[in-house]
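Can't attach files on this board, so I'm pasting raw text. These are the components:
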Amino acid sequence: MPEAVWLDLATARGQPDRVQAAVVANPAPGSLQGFARLRLIQSLWAGVDRLLSDASLPADVPLARMVDPALTRAMAETALWATLALQRGFFDYARQQRAGLWRQHAQRRADEVPVLVLGQGEMGTAVAHSLALQGFAVTGWATRPGQAASGVRRIAGRGALHDALAGTQVLINLLPLTPATRALLDADLFAAMPRGAAVVNLARGPHLVQADLLRALDAGHIGHAVLDVFDSEPLPPEHPFWQHERVTVLPHVAAHTDERSAAAVVVDNLRALQRGAPLRHLVQRERGY
Amino acid sequence: MPEAVWLDLATARGQPDRVQAAVVANPAPGSLQGFARLRLIQSLWAGVDRLLSDASLPADVPLARMVDPALTRAMAETALWATLALQRGFFDYARQQRAGLWRQHAQRRADEVPVLVLGQGEMGTAVAHSLALQGFAVTGWATRPGQAASGVRRIAGRGALHDALAGTQVLINLLPLTPATRALLDADLFAAMPRGAAVVNLARGPHLVQADLLRALDAGHIGHAVLDVFDSEPLPPEHPFWQHERVTVLPHVAAHTDERSAAAVVVDNLRALQRGAPLRHLVQRERGY
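---
Top answer:
Structure tokens for the assembled complex are below.
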């Protein structure tokens, strides 16, 4: 283990030459400047887009993302809950309850609900696999061709994405936020989906063009949206998503780092740093994740 | 196959001596009288409590329940959706959304949520198994000792039930409705559960004492209820469940017979009848299911 661990930035700043590793959760921009001996920046979050947007982040220090099995599992739970609710109409029944309406809808089998998972990294792969186990017809869209999870059809590239959208009932976004994926969920993408399809955004707010989604919802083209992330968080009180009857708003809770398992992940990387062993889950800064 | 199939009761009544099998979905009491050669009553529903409450039901004609794989699977989906929502607080977040409230709660792992499934027949076993696969700590309560599903702790008897309730966070009822199970979910049972636990009734309305549940909810002892079945259906417009913020009302949709797979089940039993082979899924009338 490192010879010293400080739990506050002020103490670390008092002896900047002793700091070899920083374990951080989206610190204020500039926080990581001035540590000449820094050899590892370990994020406690899976998404490092906000860290990378800090222009003062030391360019030559390895940056590691959090890959916590409990976080991955929590994401798979949220995606499964949302997809089951969309398959079986439970969001519709909740709306009916508020209106005092007793009305039964047709029951769809899981294999009649094609699900498209955007992103086939750690979390996208786990989500796709969990949904396939439950019987859903799952396609996983990746940046590059590669090995699909069991029971999942894997596709890659923009052309394949456009084709897959036409047969998608539930779209689940688990992409990293990069210049290439920002605003991917826009009016064009919604228009490529069949009428009544659903959108589930569990990744980052700026993946989705909020105004385009509102228009697609209000036109009845998108049937429902489950949103865990937003351009501005907390979602501002006046935002129309809050009271929209076809939007489920979650307060960024789809998956949190679990301190119990994440601590072990951090310790493993700190030990590797000390031994000079390879560091795990390193970010490739040029691709953005 | 039988020599003739009629799709309406009036035609059948016109030639009562030709009717050998009746395929029914809760017909009006008395409907099955007067068919002297009737040799099978095949229910299209899994629950036959309403059929058995018809005193004029021919006493000596075999009665078969519907055991449809699609229906069993739909029930497992509904139970999984409800349990995931309770584990991860998604009903709470829906309530927060209506109030415009952005607030995050602690994230529980599935293995931290003990689930008790009442009933270990066709559906209870499938539900318990599906929840165990998802990582929940599942106990299945059966009338008699027997083989547990993989990953499920099986218990039997009233004493064991009382002990198990103290450690239960989510109670899921899948019992058949019989004199022994009627009103089992009452104030005593709720009091035996820990504060904040949830009740999911997917079986029959009269299993649950509605007034006792309302009192337990309003006292904050029961944290949430998911109810698919009621004493009177449709649930009357003035019933307090409709607008209760800690009750999820479903309009009896937890699991419907799927006509595609159920048709095959019915045909199998009709063929067995014709060949004189053993009939499947026969009800033991003295036990009530």
